[in-house]
Amino acid sequence: MSEAALIARIRELFSPRIGDDAAIVGAQVITTDMLIEDVDFTRSIPLPLIARKSLAVNLSDLAAMGSKPVYAVAAFGIAEWARGAFDSFLLALRDAANAYGVEIVGGDISRADKLVISITAIGETPARPLLRSGARPGERIYVSRPIGGSAAGLHLLQNGWTIDGPPPPQTGYATLEFARSAMRRHADPEPEIALGVALSSIAEVTSCIDISDGLSTDMHHICDASNAGAEIERERIPMFPDLIASGGALGIRAQDAVLHGGEEYALLFTSSLRESDLSARLGRPVYAIGRITERRGVVLLQDGVGKPLEPRGWDHFAHRE
Amino acid sequence: MSEAALIARIRELFSPRIGDDAAIVGAQVITTDMLIEDVDFTRSIPLPLIARKSLAVNLSDLAAMGSKPVYAVAAFGIAEWARGAFDSFLLALRDAANAYGVEIVGGDISRADKLVISITAIGETPARPLLRSGARPGERIYVSRPIGGSAAGLHLLQNGWTIDGPPPPQTGYATLEFARSAMRRHADPEPEIALGVALSSIAEVTSCIDISDGLSTDMHHICDASNAGAEIERERIPMFPDLIASGGALGIRAQDAVLHGGEEYALLFTSSLRESDLSARLGRPVYAIGRITERRGVVLLQDGVGKPLEPRGWDHFAHRE
Predict the structure, then answer these.
(1) ipTM of the prediction
(2) What span, in angstroms and rounded, lies between the C-alpha atoms of B232 and B214?
(3) Less Cβ around it within 10 Å: N or C end of chain A?
(4) Does one domain contain both B53 and B149?
(5) Domain co-membership, A112 together with A178
């Protein structure tokens, strides 16, 4: 059973509401995410960053709905190795919660062989929640910021780099700067909370998702929910700075990182507004990368040629199948 | 750091609200619990029972606050061994949610080496939430049903018995009946939802907790929160049926099971009302087992002698220290 099949079964059994980044219940939006050692992070990531990320991924789900986070609960399965320094985890979680204006009101602790963090975050229902299902043919497709950095950072972390250790010998300055910012993007993602709230107030924004699985897979999520297709122009996708030059020298395939890299937590959304108009209304840049089409499927236009863009982003089960 | 020290630190960092079975936030009560393979259950427990229990322990926390459950979200870290039969897990979870009147509105799935289930349940705030902190000297201490069965069932499951396999050869009928009901009590606990809601409507009920850590530890929780002590009469604690005879023959120490056995999910509460009056108002039996005292500490009265009852119930970290 693939992740998609499992989610389909869960929707069927429990609630057709399941399927957006978070669930709307009355006056609230609620989301839950579990991070597991050796699946979502490794021990090489400092505990404070694991804490920040475990909160950030939940807040990103709320952002994708246009919801402002209000409170959260957290459950921890604490592995032996993490116990001694767990205070650094709690402090970082507290600071992140304060920074995002979220109160952590309760929780559960247990021991575990591997560190597991499960956070549930609850936000206010916006006047008009953003769903995956509102995209209409002809509308522009937007990403909120340059992408590809998280996958690049993950690649480095899986190939001997560490966040706070020394770099490989004879690493040049530009490469080092790139590597550090890519690892940071991966390990310390920033949820687009303010943008999500702003987008929900603009009537011409019709759908939204956060790029957690990867652009290709999340674009398919919007198209599937909206009964539509998409054409993405490869050249218009904003790339994480220096991904081609420094990333390439480090063995990172920029194209894969941009198209399929997960855990970006940029927002992917659709609107009838033009890029300049939308950016002006938001007071910050957003990037039009293509159009919603009537014809189903996602097409990538590159060098004047269109090819199907398969959902090759993160599937939580794929590498075990 | 013991569990108690960790919880104290979490309260200090995050919110003084933390400490009851669930947190009150505006018009809601919220609780979260994580169940981890080989900590909270083993693979010998059928997946449908793991599903039911993972929901039940959360609903029990709401019950202890007097809150009626409304909705929940669930996150699963799915281990390889559980994937093939995960549909049986989902079906059981759906059925349990329907039976308890809870809608599961969202979730998260991931792979994991060990099965992890984290559920967050949200209930309506009762007119008067039940806290741990309201017990006053002179009031009676109550348990909602006979206890000791869960610890007995756990002992059996840790000593070769299985829920659906054949019993050891030459097991007598009474022993078999006892063993089955004890294992069921452990693996398929029943949250006291209706009782919790009823208790919250009775002004003379002053504090409440669910017995998840064990009577001794949870009695200390009430006393600590209420700045009071307790005297419990050993002979008045209602015991799980046949615990002494059949349980004893199976190597179960009835006294330990009753006093310190966790995961009972009976309610432990206090009231100025007499047992007969309170039972009559509730329309069901509840069991007075002692009195709240001004003097701090918990005392167990047995055969006319009082001895300190130390909190020897479940500490999620104790057996690693």
Answers:
(1) 0.88
(2) 14
(3) C
(4) no
(5) no
Sign of the CA dihedral running A139, A140, A142, A147? positive
Check CB contact under 8 Å for B23 and A317. Answer: no
* Residue finishing a domain among B124, B158, B183: B124
Asked if residue A120 and residue A148 are part of one domain, the reply reads no
- pLDDT tens by residue, B138-196: 999 999 999 999 999 999 999 999 998 899 888 899 999 999 999 999 999 999 999 99
* CA distances to A63, A136, A149, B86, B99 from A265, in Å: 10, 23, 11, 29, 37
- Residue A134 counted as domain residue: no
Alpha-carbon distances, residue A12 vs A4, A16, A159, A175, B229 (angstroms): 12, 7, 40, 48, 51
CA angle B258/B264/B265 to nearest 5° reads 140
Q: What does the pLDDT average to over A170-176? A: 91
Is A34 within 8 Å of B108 when comparing Cβ atoms? Answer: yes
Q: Render pLDDT for B183-207 as a digit per residue (tens, 0 to 9).
A: 999 999 999 999 999 999 999 999 9
- Whether B172 maps to a domain, the answer reads yes
H helices then E strands: how many in chain B? Answer: 11, 12
Here the tokens at position B319 are 């057996």
> Would you place residue A26 in the very low, low, confident or very high pLDDT band (cuts 50, 70, 90)?
confident
- B11 touching A (Cβ < 8 Å): no
Find, in chain B, the residue whose alpha carbon is nearest to that of A314: B110
Final residue before a domain boundary, out of A93, A124, A155? A124
How many residues are present in chain A?
321
Which of A17, A36, A97 has its CB closest to that of B110?
A36
My answer on whether B26 and B60 are in the same domain is yes
B168 and B293 in a common domain: yes
d(CA A281, CA A277): 6
Q: How far is B199 from chain A (nearest CA, A)?
A: 23
Query: What part of A 158-187 touches B (C-beta under 8 Å)?
Result: none
Mean pLDDT of B72-98: 95
Any residues with CB less than 8 A from the CB of B305 and at least 6 apart, and which?
Answer: none
E strands present in chain B: 23-25, 28-36, 68-79, 103-112, 116-124, 140-143, 205-210, 229-233, 267-271, 287-293, 297-302, 305-308
CA torsion B178-B179-B180-B183 (nearest 10°) is: 120
Whole-number Cα distances in Å, A212 to A154, A209, A256, A317: 13, 9, 15, 15
Whichever domain contains A254, its CATH number is 3.90.650.10
Helices (H), chain A: 3-13, 47-64, 80-83, 86-100, 149-157, 173-187, 193-200, 215-226, 248-249, 254-260, 275-282
The CATH number assigned to the domain holding A64 equals 3.30.1330.10
Q: Residue B229: how many CB atoms within 10 A of its CB? A: 20
Most distant CA pair in chain A, distance = 57
CA gyration radius for chain A? 19
Give contacts of A 193-232 with B, CB under 8 A: none
Instruction: Give the integer Cα–Cα distance in Å for B99 and A90.
Output: 37
Question: Residue B320 has what pLDDT?
Answer: 36
**Residue linked to tokens 């750091």:** B1
Confidence tier at B319 by pLDDT (50, 70, 90): very low
Locus of tokens 């015991």: B239
Does some domain include residue B3? no
The model's pTM: 0.91
Q: Which of A1, A93, A103 is opposite residue B15, by nearest beta carbon?
A: A103
Domain of residue B255, residue span: 140-320
For chain A, what is the mean pLDDT?
93
